[in-house]
Amino acid sequence: MSLAGRRAAILASSLLFSVLAPAGAASAAAKPAPAKKPAIAAAPAKKPAVVATPAKKPAVVATPAKVVAAPAKPTTAVTKSAVPTLASRLTAVRAAKTINYYPSNAGWSAMWTNFDPVKIEADLTRAKELGADNVRVIVFPTAFGYPAPKADYAAKLSKFISIADGEGLTVKLTLFDWWAGYTDTAGSSAWAKAVLTPYANDPRVLSVEVQNEFDPTNAGGVTWIRKIVPAIRAAVPTMPLTASVSGTTGAAGLAQIRTVLAATPLDYLDFHFYGDSERALAEIRKAQAAAGSFPIVIGETGLSTATGSEGAQAAYLARVFAAAKVAGVGSVAPWTLSDFSTGAIPSNSAVSKIPAQYKFGLYRADGSAKAAAAVVRTYWAGQPLTNSVLDLGFEATAGNSPWGPYLAEHGTAERVTGVAHGGAGSVRFTGTSRTGAGLPSLRLAPVTPVQAGLKWHAEAWARGQNLTGSTEIALSWFDANDKWLGQTQSKPLPTGTTGWTRLTVDTTAPAGAAAVQLHLKSGDNKGTVWFDDVAMS
Fold first, then answer.
1. Which SUPFAM superfamilies did the record assign (predicted)?
2. How far apart are CA 101 and CA 103, in angstroms?
3. Per-residue confidence (pLDDT) for residue 81, from 0 to 100
4. Considering the entire predicted model, what is its pTM?
5. Which of the four, 112, 257, 341, 373, has the lowest number of CB atoms within 10 Å?
6. Rounded Cα distance, 464 and 161, in Å
7. pLDDT tens column, 347-361
């Protein structure tokens, strides 16, 4: 069917929802959404950090047998001719190009209470154009009807899956978000079965996440999930099951989930990564070690542009993708497709009070793309991610650059035009001081993950006018716990006035190194220095 034809059909079907859905259906939640994702701690005084981060989450729902469901046409992402098996679905899960999704104007449970199939179809068209082949969506029991899903909400889920399939996307379903009803295992089991049974052998649905960011230290939750997993397994035996842990719980949470479910194991584990992207490889390897023999996916990752620049967001995702590739993790899901407009997140959720939650999108709320969208498109196309995303020639505007200051109180780099080694822009330090912690600098981490023993090269061009003090570049090394291991410096730029001079560093990553930052440094400088055309390899 043509795009216009699909949209016409979707619009017509939305009239059915307007009849089925109760007027003024309210967004509901058993408890406020947890104050999501931790921001990355700022670097201690002695050490520079490049990025920060908070968090978010999505929702999905079921379809009773009596509700008219979309035709079970098979997705392009899964074998069309055969009923899916546990093995075939799990293989697809591990390679899925997954995007986390809520509409920009209706986040969390509002996606379902204000269901808009035309908007959803347009958004999933964009996701497909980006390179996605799978979409993760969260289903909320209190919005869908509990313990028996409401017919109109089951129809909405069916329609969502049909729309996704029309765009060539399979669906991952996440259940029991905003949920604390751990004493009602019978009701929980009945609800999950009602939601999932229609899709037991449906190749359009890839997997089930039993609970979003499950807390394995909650005794009641542990008792509940030990009973829910076998119940879901019985209802949909070929559907891979997982549970995710929050960014704050990390690898330790994965190990705990594996332990508490040893008798009723999941099929894979879902790692939500919102840590420091400079150390992403070390953190992913910790998660793999914690998961043991279970495969992992990175079900959520990203950086809010409310706390970092759009350039920092693009660099963040590039580092996570590059680290996942080295670690052999084939599925990394950005959070989320789009930013949220004011009022889009239900006010009964704590998430709605957190500004960072509105700005994780690859696209702005008006649909325009951020720099991160190009990074995701490149990665999903199987093309290499390079340092070109890092603004190494200082041609980007300040708000679109991933560079960050260190010891800025002792000297701030400013972007200028008119003096450049190449292109139009450079950065300039004038009138700097210094501290016992080091020289003020502008700093950046590369896309390529650090591995101990590998050789590194860095360079930058510098030009001085009436220089005093010290001007140099340096590679600064950190371990997996963010402990500073030392640095390797270039020869200093001569004092006085100089033409453009190439400063270089060649060194080997020390034992225990998990991250590196390049610093452009100038301290005790009463004159002016310009830096331009940086390279790292």
1. (Trans)glycosidases (SSF51445), Galactose-binding domain-like (SSF49785)
2. 7
3. 52
4. 0.86
5. 341
6. 61
7. 999 999 999 999 999
